[in-house]
Write a structure and sequence with these properties.
11 helices; disordered N terminus; five-stranded antiparallel sheet; alpha/beta; Immunoglobulin-like; 3 domains
Length: 486
C-alpha cells in the first residue's frame, strides 16, 4: 500500500489520543435540522440511500452515494444482493423498486417521496470497481430520476478507481482493491460531495485537526446488538460544541464492509477527508459503527438482521435516526405545542446505578422526554409512561422532570420535579487495579480485541493490551465502573 507518511503520523497521534478517552453520551448541539445530509461507501452507500429515501423528511437536503445502489435492491435476498445489485446490475428491477417505494410511502412505512423533490444527490463509481459494478450506480441514477430533479444529481464515473472511498492524499494506489478501502486517486471526493450538497464552502482546513474534536460516543444508548457496536464516533468542530454560538450542519458518514473501527481502526473516521471540510464549515460529522457481529461488518441492506431493514422501523435505520435526533436536540424544535405537563411524576425501583421514573400520560402526546438535572437522558422518545435512567452513581440524590412531545418533536410544559436517591454500594465493594488485558481475563471487562469496556456499565477503558491500566469498582454483581473505593 502507498500511504503518505505525514498523514500516517498524524493518524497515529490521533489514534493514541482518541483511545485514551472514555465514551460519552452523544451531545445535544445547535443543528439546523434543514441541513442534515448522509453519505456512504458500498454497504454504507446502500444504507445512505435507505436513510435518504425512508427518512426523507430528515435527510431532505440530500445524500452522497459511493459504489452503492438502488433502494431495496436486494428485496430481502442475499442472492439478489451479491448478484444483480453488485455483480450483474442488468437484472435490477428499477421500475418495480420505484413502485415499491411509492407504495411504502403511501402506507406510512417510509416518509412521503415528495420530500425528495428538493434533494441533491452526488454519486460516484470508479471505472475499475470490481465489487459493485458501475451498472448498479447507473440503475440508481435511473431510480432517482423518478423522485429527484435531474439538475440536482451529479454522477461522476470517470476515475480509474477500484472499490474504495477516494481521496486526494491518503490510502492505497487508486487501482488497488484492499483494506482499508481508501484510495489516493488525487481527487477529493468528500469535498466534491459536500460542495454539491451544501453549495459553496470555505476552503478545507489542511492543518492537523484538534484531537479533542473527535468524540467517541455511547452508541448503546440507541441500540443493543443488531450488528452495531457499543460506541460510535463524531467529529465536532470547536464552534459547534456544546455552549458554542454557531448554528451548525450535520452530515452522517457510513463506512463500508470491513471498514468499522475493529477492522481499520480510525482510518475511515480520520482519513477520508470529511473532517477537514467540516472543521472550516461548521459541519458536525457523525460516524455510526457496525460491530464484528454484523456480516462482514456491513450495514444491513439485504436483510441479515431484520426483514424491515429498509423501512423506518428497521433497527439500524431507527438507531441512526435516533442519533441524528439526539445530536440535533440542542436546536429549537420546529413549531409550537400546547401539550400540558405530565403529572404524578414519581421515582421507584432504585438500584445502585439506576432509577425508574413514572408519570401520568398527556392527551395528544406522541411521546415523552425525561430530564435529569435539566439534561435530557433518553435517546429515543419514550413511548410509554415510564423510563429507567441508568449509569447513575451509588448513594446519590437526583431530580427528574418529564415533558410531553408531539409528532414534530416540539415539547410541552415541564412536569414538577421528582427526586430520588440511588442505593448505597454493597458492603465490601471492591476495587481492582490492573491492565486492561488482566481485567478481561478476570471477567471484569469485555473487549472487541481493540478496545476494552467495563463489564455491566460498558464504560470505555481504552486499548485492549497490557500497557493500559484502569481501576474498576464493582458496584453490584457483574457490574463494574471506572473509579476508586473509599
Amino acid at each position: 500500500m502507498t500511504f503518505k507518511l505525514s498523514r500516517i503520523a498524524a493518524l497515529a497521534i490521533a489514534l493514541t489520543s482518541g483511545a485514551a478517552c472514555a465514551a460519552v453520551n452523544l451531545p445535544q448541539l445547535n443543528i439546523d435540522k434543514t441541513q442534515t445530509t448522509v453519505s456512504g461507501l458500498s454497504a454504507g452507500g446502500f444504507m445512505a440511500v435507505q436513510l435518504h429515501v425512508a427518512y426523507s423528511a430528515t435527510f431532505q437536503k440530500g445524500a452522497g452515494v459511493v459504489a452503492g445502489g438502488v433502494f431495496y435492491c436486494a428485496e430481502g435476498s442475499v442472492v439478489n444482493a451479491t448478484g444483480r445489485c453488485m455483480a450483474s446490475p442488468a437484472g435490477i428491477p428499477t421500475s418495480a423498486l420505484v413502485t415499491t417505494t411509492n407504495n411504502w410511502a403511501s402506507q406510512g412505512l417510509i416518509d412521503p417521496v415528495a420530500n425528495l423533490q428538493s434533494s441533491k444527490v452526488y454519486m460516484f463509481s470508479g471505472t475499475l470497481d470490481s465489487v459493485v459494478k458501475t451498472g448498479g450506480m447507473d440503475a440508481l441514477k435511473t431510480y432517482y430520476n423518478s423522485f429527484v430533479p435531474a439538475a440536482n444529481v451529479v454522477y461522476k464515473k470517470d476515475i480509474a478507481a477500484e472499490h474504495a472511498m477516494v481521496t486526494d492524499d491518503y490510502g492505497n494506489a487508486c487501482a488497488t482493491k484492499g483494506a482499508p478501502y481508501i484510495n489516493d486517486c488525487n481527487f477529493d471526493l468528500a469535498g466534491a460531495m459536500l460542495s454539491h450538497l451544501y453549495g459553496s464552502l470555505n476552503p478545507r482546513n489542511n492543518a492537523t485537526l484538534p484531537a479533542g474534536n473527535f468524540v467517541e460516543f455511547n452508541q448503546s444508548a440507541f441500540i443493543t446488538n443488531h450488528g452495531m457496536a457499543t460506541t460510535g464516533w463524531a467529529y465536532i468542530p470547536q464552534a459547534c460544541q456544546a455552549g458554542g454560538t454557531a448554528t451548525c450542519r450535520l452530515h452522517v458518514v457510513l463506512h463500508g464492509c470491513k471498514q468499522n473501527i475493529s477492522d481499520v481502526q480510525q482510518q475511515y473516521v480520520q482519513s477520508t477527508g470529511y473532517n477537514r471540510w467540516a472543521d472550516s464549515n461548521n459541519i458536525v460529522m457523525l460516524y455510526p459503527q457496525t460491530s464484528t457481529a454484523a456480516t462482514n461488518s456491513c450495514w444491513d441492506w439485504w436483510g441479515y438482521d431484520s426483514a424491515n431493514y429498509a423501512k423506518k422501523s428497521g433497527p439500524q435505520m431507527a438507531a441512526i435516526k435516533a442519533m441524528v435526533d439526539q445530536v440535533s436536540a440542542g436546536s429549537t424544535p420546529t413549531g409550537t405545542t400546547t401539550l400540558a405537563a405530565p403529572t404524578a411524576v414519581t421515582t421507584s425501583n432504585a438500584t445502585t446505578s439506576s432509577m425508574q421514573i413514572s408519570w401520568t400520560g398527556v392527551g395528544g402526546a406522541a411521546g415523552y422526554n425525561v430530564y435529569r438535572g435539566g439534561n435530557k437522558v433518553n435517546a429515543l422518545t419514550v413511548a410509554g409512561t415510564s423510563y429507567t435512567d441508568g449509569s447513575l452513581a451509588p448513594s446519590t440524590a437526583y431530580s427528574w422532570t418529564v415533558k410531553a412531545a408531539d409528532a414534530n418533536g416540539a415539547e410541552g410544559l415541564a412536569s414538577a420535579a421528582a427526586a430520588g436517591t440511588t442505593l448505597a454500594a454493597p458492603t465490601g465493594a471492591t476495587c481492582s487495579t490492573s491492565s486492561n488485558y488482566s481485567h478481561v481475563l478476570a471477567g471484569r471487562a469485555t473487549t472487541n480485541f481493540i478496545y476494552t469496556y467495563a463489564k455491566g456499565s460498558g464504560q470505555s477503558m481504552g486499548l485492549y493490551n497490557v500497557f493500559v491500566t484502569n481501576t474498576l469498582k464493582q458496584t453490584s454483581p457483574g457490574y463494574y465502573v471506572i473509579g476508586t473505593c473509599p
